[in-house]
Amino acid sequence: MSGARQRLSFDARVRDALADPLLKVAIDRTTGNARAKRAAAMAAWPGFSAARELGRDIKDHVIAHLDHYLVQFERNARSSGAQVHWARSGPEACDIVVAICRKAGARTVTRSKSMLGEEIGLPHALQEAAIERVETDLAEHIIQLAGDPPSHIIWPALHKTREQVAELFHAHHHDPGTLDSIEAMVASARRELRGRFLAADVGISGANFLIADTGAVCTVTNEGNAELTTTPPRVHIVTAGIEKLVPSCAHAMAMLRLLVRSATGAELTQYTTFHCGPKRPGDLDGPAEFHIVLVDGGRTRMLAEGLAEMLRCIRCGACLNHCVVYRQIGGHAYGAVYPGPMGSVLTPMLDGLPQSKDLPRACTLNGQCQEVCPVAIPLPTLLRGWRDRIWSTGLESVTVRQGFAVWRFLALHPALYRQASAMAVWMMAWFARGGWIARMPLAGGWTRYRDMPRPPRRTFIAQYRRRMPRP
Amino acid sequence: MSDARSTILSAIRAALDRRRGGPAMADESSIAAEAAHLRTRADATRPDRLTGGAENAFLERLVSPAVAATAERVASLRDFPAAVRRYLTAQGLASSVALQPHPDLFALDWSGIQTHGQIGIDEPVAVGLALGAIAETGTLVFHSGPTSPTLFAFFPTHHIVAVETGRIWNWLEDYADAVAGCAQPRNVNLITGASGTTDIEGTLVRGAHGPGWLHVVLFASAAPSPDRSVGSDAGHFASLDNLK
Questions:
Q1: pTM score, two decimals?
Q2: Lower Cβ count inside 10 Å, N or C end of chain B?
């Protein structure tokens, strides 16, 4: 997204998103596919609810002993030959990565999709350092060509229809061919990126899990681009959030069952790889240097400030696909790295509440996100927590505060409340045509996009009184 | 960066102490006991599909639409070259393959097929030997090493892989348990079907960056011998004898 769009208000970004007819088509195609596949995978897995409780408990166990597991992971990674770095913030992490690249004399780096990389601003930092970045995940490749940020944490190019992807490839690829099918587009990207894998000086990946008892880093991909990114170059750098730990490989397996089904509906990704240290003596491929950058970036604050449950998140994206708000506005309208329900919990912590106070309110609290979350994060409760904080720190707008003051006054005076609601119901009936209200003063925000059902002629209390037998 | 390290660790300890109501950090053995209990809880949550035995479950999963590999059985590893020849003919491919530098593969009779030990990024066909397989998910297991370079599984368009019946673990955790405590290779690659992507409109397309085709040749184990190991992988995994 251009900086210009980023600077628009949340309301303006939402208006733009809702006015874009292609965006709705693109969102519906991918999230619809994702919901159907996840539902089928869960239907075929009777153990899901017990597995979900287990996933939650594994993550809670790690978080409760995070210091222990971090130290254990560091020790084992070092003894496998990895170099472990610690970064308090995103900029500090980027400085470490850029310094490693410079020391390696890197002109080109390949990168395998990592949301943490986006979170810490790594693409920008590499550009500032004049190091060419080649995104190798197909979706990341698409949005790199388009100059867009990701709009979904699993499908970063979800906002692009196949027709738009074909246009991009036609304009940018050296040998695009016909591009008349999705297969042809995938083949064109394969041809385009093939040589880049071998030409890179450094490969950068994220981590889906950090295995404490071996010091290994687990990545999952379907394309195979992670291994092609992390194997040929002389240097492999991993950037990982400190919450990615699991005690052992066996625990990672239990988490993988949840992650992959929740993300794509498959039982296991095509490529599930554990990277441990640099290449061994006698190995015919693999990097000579292996660096792991452990990033805090607000996670210790989440632990201290009541958001420990959010540290369970394994970035599967199911909450996005099931969110009625995300499915209308897409990822870019959120104006942050992480969109959807999980993003609306994370962004106020990462970017600050004043800048992101609209996000916790962009939620109907219908609870679907919590229902599908594979680690049972109480997302609606956490979002309500942010709303409380918005109120208690005085970030709420004057209009809303006054509105609530009026409502509070009425709620404390029941007789007045009943009179006011009876009057409102009576007035609304005026605007109704055939059972629906298409337009009404003060309700434009609702009626611009859908009609409102006409309310009953009398309030609930009035009806109740009429129907109750008199004593 | 030791400064960042101590800042992060003390911030974690301060936050955890507040949650625990005091600096009473659990001792290592109680943390390990808790982790072990969590590990055992996984068993009851696994999808039940092993009733027909590990071999059948593995093959069934492997050729299911979700994994979409192809597979065949042969009597022994000696029959692997013939299976490769059949595959090349059926697919209309040239008789030239990159052969994973594994002594058990080198020992076979490859007459009629040109083999080479180096692999190029646009290699049409690579032929390999997996360390083992996992029935639950139809997954092949590779450990990188001098006889098993990682890129053999990622460069070719067609990947033909032999795997031994006696080396199929039932569940993902069984593999993890089998290698627990062993020295780790640089890469453990769990491979479940050919490369694919759903990045354009969520539609699955095969052959994204890795192979577009995966063919598995399941061969029966030779008569069991107690100290059998997986070629030169033995150094890494001497304790893999009891696979199941």
A1: 0.93
A2: C
